[in-house]
Amino acid sequence: xxxxxxxxxxxxxxxxxxxxxxxxxxxxxxxxxxxxxxxxxxxxxxxxxxxxxxxxxxxxxxxxxxxxxxxxxxxxxxxxxxxxxxxxxxxxxxxxxxxxxxxxxxxxxxxxx
Length: 113
Fold this sequence. Notes:
By secondary structure, the protein is mainly beta.
């Protein structure tokens, strides 16, 4: 399944969100502008994240990536991310995430779990 264009765009009251394991794609702007979101968990089945899907998370403290291979994306993912946000990825995949297109811009925020 997928989250379509803008489905949660600018939901301003959600603070914590765990995506369903049934999803494989996060569509354009599907979660952009969730300005109170503090924690986001992205499951293992998410294989593709459109570049604007996760933008403007200005209050986010942590993003937890459960997939061992970085989801395909374009440059510009996580634009507007809080500067102190930590991106947690599987320890065995840390180097891959830090080098992957789109993800590499946030390499300094990544830690292995």
